[in-house]
Design goal:
single chain; about 100 residues; mainly alpha; 5 helices; about 50% helix; about 0% strand
Length: about 100
């Protein structure tokens, strides 16, 4: 990538300056961020419904596939007393966000 930068007369890497990060300071905002990220493929018309993206954690949160790599955040865990409740409430939040966007 350094060669590419040199050809364009830049000293930085290709990705430098393209991404930024901001701290997530509340649990409500964390849930909103998760919903936003999981709905991006739908908004980009890459999939027909949330969870169809193979790279999304949405199907894992819905319980539609096994996982060994996802650590659930405290906000998600607080959605219910058990997996069934959490999945139901998360799916509801996601569906409400989809309807709100139409």
């Amino acid at each position: 990538m350094r060669n590419h930068s040199r050809l364009e007369g830049r000293s930085d890497t290709v990705w430098e300056g393209h991404y930024k990060s901001s701290p997530v300071q509340t649990e409500e905002y964390l849930l909103a961020c998760c919903l936003y990220i999981e709905l991006n493929p739908l908004r980009a018309r890459m999939v027909a419904k949330p969870g169809n993206d193979p790279w999304s954690s949405c199907r894992l949160r819905f319980g539609e596939t096994e996982h060994s790599w996802l650590d659930y955040d405290p906000c998600y865990l607080a959605l219910g007393e058990n997996d069934t409740e959490r999945r139901f409430r998360y799916r509801g939040f996601l569906q409400a966000a989809v309807l709100e966007g139409k």
